[in-house]
Amino acid sequence: MCLKTSTNKHFLFHKNFRLNGDLYDAVNVAEDDEWRRIRNHVTPSFASGRIKEMFNIMQHHSNKLILSLQSKVDNNEVITIKDIFGPYSMDVMTSCVFSVDLDSINDPSNPFITHATKLFRFSVPLFLFQGCFPVFIPLLNLLGVSLFPKSSTTFFRAVVEKIRAERSESSRKSMTDVLQYFLNYQTNKVSKERETWGLNDHEILSQLTMLLFAGYETSATTLVFLAYTLARNPEVMKQLQQEIDLTFPNKGLVQYDSLMQMEYLSSVVDECLRLYPPAARIERMTKETVRIKGITIPKNMIVQVPVYALHRDPDLWPDPEEFKPDRFSKENKHNINPYAYLPFGMGPRNCLGKRFALVMIKLALVKVLQTYSFLVCEETEIPLKMHPEGLVGPLKPIKLKLKKRTVVSDVEN
């Protein structure tokens, strides 16, 4: 059954698959009052002011990204795009989350990337089994079965505990990363006012794990899809490069405020997220019985929103398979039903790292396109086959070439 309507009032919480292992108290898994408390503590970590503070960190890693591309272009290499944007994304995340510079760009085999990739590749048989036979979920939990690989969560727990143990009292005062933000508000005191509680040790670990790995995977994959769509639509890439050159003449330093005001860049990113949203679907649970368009949905019913299919519905998007950034132009975007475009979810449980991710993505894309253009090559798979497990992503790595731009001026003719 497909029910097309716009309501968010009665659908407050997403489905908890229960097989969450050590991440049972992550912000995207917790429910009711526990979720509200955790969300209230995590959200300020990605407020606009803090993102601006993190922008210099992103600049640092974007510069390293550009340096790493030079030899690949000089040698006319076929580039696996995830191999350049994945390390950039991971380095930004680890630096912002706990002030560690992994230098993954120069060490792509870093175990952080290996474990981050594994964390969101859910087992399809297990996923289907728990959905079809929920009666067995308590037994699976007792057996320690989880959708999230135990090896990856154990690896990250050890890393966080080591970093925390090495922080002296004096060094903590100068730290401004997400980990230190959580630690500063941590308390073990029992209080009647639950909203004032800080996060306990396990909750901190769960939030950092989910923020780091989810932030890495979704941002890196979006950049990969952006490179792919621009390579296949060179006229769009040229128009975007013209806006870049006008905004930052002569490959000038990318400034935060100017970056956020780039209209065509935003349209390109938004359209790419329409075609390739991070999650193929999202779930919500009814907190009370509700009747919509003559259909009664009982309390505690799971409602799945097929985001990937919704984004390609011809009733909502003319020529849905085409990459058309102008759908999101200032003149056209008001025609879009907000519930027809859900790359970051909607409502109180939407993605709390949305603004952070968009800044990181836009900065990397602008930095690369200031100097290079993406090109399709013989190794580029057209059309793409999508991976059936976990988040939305290609089944096989996307491969492209980069070409150095021959004309870089105020406007490229």
TrEMBL record:
Keywords: Endoplasmic reticulum, Heme, Iron, Membrane, Metal-binding, Microsome, Monooxygenase, Oxidoreductase, Transmembrane, Transmembrane helix. This is Cytochrome P450, family 3, subfamily A, polypeptide 65. GO terms for molecular function: heme binding; iron ion binding; oxidoreductase activity, acting on paired donors, with incorporation or reduction of molecular oxygen; steroid hydroxylase activity. Coiled coil: none annotated. PANTHER family: CYTOCHROME P450 FAMILY 3, CYTOCHROME P450, FAMILY 3, SUBFAMILY A, POLYPEPTIDE 65. Heme binds at residue 351. It is a peripheral membrane protein. The keyword Nuclease does not apply. Belongs to the cytochrome P450 family. Pfam families: p450. GO terms for cellular component: endoplasmic reticulum membrane.
